[in-house]
Amino acid sequence: MSTLVATHPATGTPVVDNPAAFTLPASQKAVIRWYLYIGFAAMGIAVVHGLAQALSYAGKDVLAWFPGLKNYYQGLTIHGVFNAIVLTFAFTNGFLTLTTARGLGRPAHNGLLHASFWTLVAGVALASYAMFTGKASVLYTFYPPLQAHWAYYLGLALLVVSTWITSVNLFVMLAGWRREHPGERIPLMAFVSIATYAMWDLASIGIAVEVVALLLPWSLGLLAGSDPLFSRTLFWFSGHPIVYFWLLPAYISWYLMVPKQAVGKLFSDPLTRVVFILFLLLSIPVGFHHQYTDPGIAQSMKVVHAIFTFGVFFPSVITAFSVVSALEMGGRNHGGRGLVGWFFKLPWSDPSLAAQLLAMLVFVLGGVTGLINASYTMNQVVHNTTWVPGHFHMTVGTAVLLSFMGIAYWLIPWLKDRALWGKKLAVLQSWLYFVGVLIFARGMVSGGLEGLPRRTFRAGATYTKASWDLAGIWTGVGGTLMFVSAMLFLLILGMTVFFGKKGEAP
Ligand code: HAS
């Protein structure tokens, strides 16, 4: 039973103002839990293919491990879609429904929560059918003239629709809260969650138009063809802001939960709001930084997008300073002294915090490589090389994924009302991932600088370059460590769900 600690002075409605006072109906907790299970199950399948791709860079052909796999690109499509779309959408739909409910102190709309969940399930089923039967080996960017089965496009469209339904749910919650709290400022946790979805609502228009108006009718034979440049442009209209839709749930945790876990304090409420508003304003007009080498786009537009890309770098820089400030306070509260002493005094034995701190450290390198990508001239050196997957495994593949793992280390126990199983193993798992991704990215980044092409089945390629060999080995070794770490994570999660001590939730 929750203890409500205050009532609103004007309306008399109970106001939830401490975590202990917040409860969510069991049925809603169950949906959020299943969102996480689906997301992490997708990751479990995706990382098996990830291991195969990393080993391929090391020259090992392991395609034979996968009965029914028709080619390298089928595995790469499953890897990209399951990690970058299914995991991220499922986790975010669940997690941000919770943070909004927590921020506003009211439950979600039941019908909308279930509708978004089942829409996502239908989308995953359709896209999986197309990918596993080899009818959609078009990668997660699905550029025409590569064509996939209609079930793939419809599946992806439903996945986007599930985020829209979640968004409607958040706005419905907000409208309910507004009625009871006229003139009040939206609580920060709800504000940042809703801002994240508002950004994505606008950003996803491009991909929706591409899939519904061009690719789906084309795959059904209703259109004779598809314009590759127009399709790519619509794709990247959504395709860059989507990275912030992946990132911002991690930022919500870094701003609002990590300071508490570290016994620090949020640097500034208004500045946090400004950061999320900046993402909303600046993340959309940047898509052409993925198309610097595409012909048919005016040079001036590419320059405009380059400038905005440097603009959208700033909210992350502000985040770096805000988060470090909160952490420093935490480290000093734990007895840390001197310029860097506080860093070592942070509660590194808490797996949830350790995972997120390590994710942040890797993100510094992810951000730096992003700046190099964004620079028009330097992009010509790294575009379409393994440098780019080096960059994005340090951003979405670590800043986001390792943060999601860290969040899961308290969220799953809370949702299941069970203690986390294997706390020390969970800390080890985070470190293993951290070391693994640094080795992996070292290989990808250095290989990219030597011109090693991305999206290439290196183990089967007839051309090679001596300088790619060592880069491939780094990639293979790092990828193997990341794979082992991901498996450990799933083991810890499974053991927590089935055998975690009951009634000892955080
Ligand atoms: Fe990117 C390509 C530019 C961020 C993901 N990016 C990609 C692709 C993906 C991706 C998936 O301009 C490949 C797409 C494909 O398949 O072709 N990216 C940027 C820039 C940023 C950036 C400027 N990217 C991300 C994030 C991603 C992501 C975030 C996923 C979540 N990216 C590009 C460009 C390309 C690109 C080009 C096209 C390349 C090409 O040619 O194809 C920036 O937003 C980065 C800003 C980040 C920072 C870091 C701040 C650090 C923080 C941590 C603080 C913690 C500290 C440690 C300091 C400025 C917030 C404290 C810790 C303690 C323990 C005390």
The first-to-last residue Cα distance is 16 Å
Give the SSE string: EEHHHHHHHHHHHHHHHHH
Structural shape:
globular
- Coarse structural class: mainly alpha
The small molecules bound here are:
heme-as
What's the alpha carbon Rg, rounded to whole Å? 22 Å
In what range is the share of β-strand residues? under 5%
User: How is the main sheet built?
Assistant: 2 strands, antiparallel
Ranges with pLDDT <50 over ≥5 residues? Answer: 1-11
Roughly how much helix do the residues carry, as a percent range? over 70%
List the strand order in the largest sheet.
Answer: 1-2
Strand segment tally: 2
Count of alpha/pi helices: 17
Mean pLDDT: 94
Mind explaining what this structure looks like?
The protein has 506 residues and is mainly α. The chain has a two-stranded antiparallel ribbon with strand order 1-2. 71% of the residues lie in helices and 1% in strands. The model is unreliable at 1-11 (pLDDT under 50). It is globular and about 60 Å long. The protein has 17 helices and two strands. The structure holds heme-as.
